Amino acid sequence: MVVLSLRFLFIAPVFFEKYDVHGEMSRVPAEVMESIRKNKVCLKGGLKTPVGGGVSSLNVQLRKELDLFASLVNCFNLPGLPTRHENVDIVVIRENTEGEYAGLEHEVVPGVVESLKVITKFCSERIAKYAFEYAYLNNRKKVTAVHKANIMKLADGLFLESCREVAKKYPSITYNEIIVDNCCMQLVAKPEQFDVMVTPNLYGNLVANTAAGIAGGTGVMPGGNVGADHAVFEQGASAGNVGKDKIVLENKANPVALLLSSAMMLRHLQFPSFADRLETAVKKVIAEGKCRTKDLGGTSTTQEVVDAVIAKLD
Amino acid sequence: MTMAAFLARRLIGNRSSQILGTSSSSSGAFISVSRAFFSSTTPIKATLFPGDGIGPEIAESVKQVFTAADVVIDWDEQFVGTEVDPRTNSFLTWENLQSVLKNKVGLKGPMATPIGKGHRSLNLTLRKELNLYANVRPCYSLPGYKTRYDDVDLITIRENTEGEYSGLEHQVVKGVVESLKIITRKASMRVAEYAFLYAKTHGRKKVSAIHKANIMQKTDGLFLQCCDEVAKKYPEIYYEKVVIDNCCMMLVKNPALFDVLVMPNLYGDIISDLCAGLVGGLGLTPSMNIGEDGIALAEAVHGSAPDIAGKNLANPTALLLSGVMMLRHLKLNKQAEQIHSAIINTIAEGKYRTADLGGISTTTDFTKAICDHL
Between A85, A154, A218, which is nearest B169 by CB? Predict the structure, then answer.
């Protein structure tokens, strides 16, 4: 729905191949996968994963098949949008392919179920390298690794080892580690202490959503899933409103997150000036405060916000 | 057994065997009940682990406040050993454990787990040996102590024995590690039952089960199933299921949306600390661990703070509030309420606050102020 509005928005030389995919589908259709592999870049709306089993998440499928090993969420305060916390500017880089999301579960005997969490040196090293490289290229000062290695000594221990090794190669970037429960506590108390955070899969999900919540909500945070060859951009943290038909029907969905993600996509495609124009327009609309959807405390519809952004583009 | 004796046994819980042991007539049972239930002179035996670091100072605080409030507790003070006890494979001795098993109720200060191998952590030993299956942590905004969130009033109930903390990990091949997360019907039912019972007895309206069953379909799916089943038995309590990432986000945006939360181990760990952060940190957070056979061990979850130990600077609030939880468990509600109000009023007044709350009072001053407020 939001993506539809976006197509009218695009002033950059980008041509969209549009596909309809829904969360209830059991697999991502082959033609869609083909298209993404060919084009290498994709913009995606939220896909709801039904609770209760039977269908494996399409989001996870996409990530695994295209090997989109890094999920990025940039959580920052938007000028003009008041929140309880100031000075938030956190980038959460989350390992996207393994960990708790390996999908390997089985019933041992009736009433006893096991789920495997898999951590490999290969993936941990990969994500750590990505995180430090990102920090380096974007002038970030600090990388924090989030873990629970006091309890999961081998699994998270391996993750930490990999991070420490990579950290040695970037002496100009400060590296520290924090246990995930303390991390969440610190996020709600002093979020300004965090810069770039690198995490395994599950903690990344929680930390990203917490950080998004304190910085203004999931309706405004951009993000992307990046692999060696492909990139899929979508709303950064998508808890809560994915798949809610009521919001779609009433036109209340917030397009800001996807708009900012498209700006990220434009940068990725080496169109920085278009990306800047889009971002500036979106930020101006938010700062003005006149045109906001319900989750930001306003009454505008999705289309109204998009129109306002188009109007601000110069 | 007669009806009265039956009722008596349910009312006074496990201490009934001590009191009703020899009485056989119904009137005898009734008299014994009233004596036990209303007597303020029969001391209740409770185990106290002062702990390390600031532990002894804040434990002293608790004893003072309780005495000032006429709570007659015969504290059975237990100290952790200096060597590993081979019977328990930890620094926690057999006597320590027996004390809690006998008294059924206890209060624990912060314990520093000595670093090293070859022994179990103290907390793990307690949990396993006493079968402490539920960790209950009420988080509410303290009036007078302002944080960014003023309307927090929720309770997190966390499954404490299995899940991701089963400690079952191994290296498959070099560079590949597996960690097992176990969810059983038995443990999930147990904690779900406790959560709904707690909600009912404390007049709470809503229970939210937190999960990630869209990804971990079988494990969290089983947990949810158990919660669903228990929920059916409590139709008057509103029951909902919330995915954990959504829960984190809602908590930081609007914590008033939640009432009682019940969760498996890992999520419980993270969410309960997140909630503690919302109201002011671990220095103010009480908690209680519930075990089978009615065992309840209240504990302060903060650390032993060795850097301020012995300097009379520690904040006893967390241990005091945990003590209040213990009193409520023992059904000494009147005194629990008295002490609770005294603590809240002292903090709200703002004249006596310890350093971590932004004040300059010492532990003893703060304690005295609370006693005065009783």
Answer: A154
The predicted model scores a pTM of 0.85
Lowest mean pLDDT among A111-120, A183-192, A226-235, B286-295: A226-235
pLDDT, tens only, A16-43? 777 777 766 777 788 888 888 888 888 8
- B184 in contact with A, Cβ within 8 Å: yes
Query: Using CA of residue B287, residue B292, residue B296, residue B301, what is the dihedral sign?
Result: negative
* Secondary structure, 3-state, A248-294: HHCCCCCCHHHHHHHHHHHHHCCCHHHHHHHHHHHHHHHHHCCCCCH
Cβ pair B213:A51 closer than 8 A: yes
- pLDDT for position B34: 39
> Mind telling me how many Å the CA of A186 is from chain B's nearest CA?
7
- The answer to whether A69 and A85 are in contact (CB under 8 A) is no
The pLDDT score that the predictor gives to residue B19 is 42
Q: What is the DSSP letter of B86?
A: T
- B176, closest residue in chain A (CA to CA): A120
CB contact under 8 A, B266 and A52: no
Instruction: Please count the other Cβ atoms lying within 10 Å of the Cβ belonging to residue A158.
Output: 25
* CB-CB contact of A91 with A73 (8 Å): yes
- What is the model's pLDDT at position A241? 54
Residue B329 backbone phi and psi in degrees, to 5: -60, -35
Angle between helices A272-288 and A302-312 (to 10 degrees): 120
Q: Cα(B197)–Cα(B209) distance, rounded to whole angstroms?
A: 14
